[in-house]
Amino acid sequence: MKTKLAILSLVIFSFACSKTGTEETEVSSRTETLPYYHEATFTPDWIEPGSDSLKNYHRIPGYTLINQLGDTVTEKTLAGKIYVTDFFFTTCPGICPKMTSNMELVQQAFIDDDEIMLLSHSVTPEWDQPEVLKEYAETKGINSDKWILLTGDRKTIYDLGRKSYFVEEDQGIERTEDEFLHTENFVLVDQNRHIRGIYNGLNKVAINQLIADIKTLKNESSLP
Question: Which cysteine residues pair off into disulfide bonds (predicted)?
Answer without folding.
Answer: 92-96
